């Protein structure tokens, strides 16, 4: 089976969050199931820099304002198709904005171009390649399915995965004439969305199947509270909606071999984590003592509950714990957390930014990871925490609720607890969960039992890849029926 994946990010080349981890790991997991996935990605500088020689498989004299071409590359086992369009993607900054964090004003054009090329490839534009399935990810590639629907690839089965419904790619109606779609596409059952053009909405409308990255999130987005204005459409597509929890790349995230750690370890050698804990203390200027270190590796945003974390900071320190924070985002939240670190020197440390290696060290050296999200489609950091014996303390929402077993008395007695759950948006519930975790940490045998149980959890892509294969097969059978 041949699957074309269209995505704005892929690890290890371009990453702003968990989307890249998924699109980078899923093709490798599918290969073990006998499914060949090729991934179309934009030719950002970081991607084009990996090429030694280029030979165009597909050329465009004018793609949304400039010349463009598609090139094949194999990088770290990933079979890539790269859209080289310098006028759209050769820019200093991130994938979606400049160095100040401001979005590129022509993002609609950039990702419409990516989507248009994806639809062309689906229709057979590359000689000798005809995908059986097209799999788009989030709003940036969702229009692929609209271009397919109104073009030559309307009979090719398609899937869209929603990694976070909050990001929808909504633009003014004035862009529609420049998209190259027929006039009837600007309708309620097409790309029109509240009087404008909705990229994600268009993909949800056109896809043969819709997936989200956890079963609980698939149900949550059917409600007004989590549906972000799209719950009506999602409920109409309920029969085509599937929740498949993400996995992680267990070769990259492996405490027994991780070169980012000061000391590697396994579930049988947990004492070796002490060297990593000392390294975390040094990096975050924390006191050297035996109290637990709780950590946060996150975007510092309202969605991630960082305001709730900030409101409980003094209580966290009063409980006897220390805190290490790695992340960036809302400047007000960054400032508040930095102020908290200044107020609690030696007990709270904050590094603003993102550092892949440091995130590994924190999972390998901190005792618990805090994830107080208001909503969380899947979450990957709690899966990394399980894998590394960094006990998750998480809000009971989305994929967090699907992947963590709360350390209540029954679960502890049965030896199945893997973390601590609390109700989202509640500072009091968050404080109570932290106090529970600190109390359990004070009993070393109990704490190591929770760690080892988490490390036994299957957080790989194996089962999830099998579910994607089953979905792909069900869609291709509809095509041939």
Radius of gyration: 23 Å
Strand order of the largest sheet: 3-4-5-2-1-6-7-11-12
For the report, how would you describe the main beta sheet? 9 strands, mixed
Strand tally: 18
Count of helical regions: 20
Secondary-structure-based class equals alpha/beta
Work out the strand percent.
15-25%
Low-confidence stretches: none
Distance between the termini: 17 Å
Shape: globular
Query: Mean pLDDT, as a whole number?
Result: 96
What helical percentage do the residues reach?
25-40%
Describe this structure in words.
With 481 residues, this protein is of the alpha/beta class. It is 39% helix and 19% strand. The chain is built from 20 helices and 18 strands. The longest helix is centred in the C-terminal third of the chain and has 19 residues, at 462-480. The radius of gyration is 23 Å and the shape is globular. The mean pLDDT is 96.
Features:
alpha/beta; 39% helix
List the helices and strands and how they pair.
Elements: E1 2-6, H1 18-31, E2 36-42, H2 45-48, E3 56-60, E4 68-75, E5 78-84, H3 86-89, H4 107-122, E6 133-137, H5 138-149, E7 158-162, E8 170-171, E9 192-193, E10 196-198, H6 199-206, E11 209-212, H7 215-220, H8 224-227, H9 231-236, E12 241-243, H10 273-284, E13 293-300, H11 306-311, H12 313-318, E14 322-329, H13 331-343, E15 348-352, H14 356-365, E16 368-371, H15 381-388, E17 391-395, H16 398-403, H17 409-414, E18 420-422, H18 427-441, H19 444-456, H20 462-480
Parallel strand pairs: 1-2, 1-6, 2-5, 6-7, 7-11, 11-12, 13-14, 13-16, 14-15, 16-17, 17-18
Antiparallel strand pairs: 3-4, 4-5, 8-10, 9-10
Helix pairs in contact: 4-5, 5-6, 10-14, 15-19
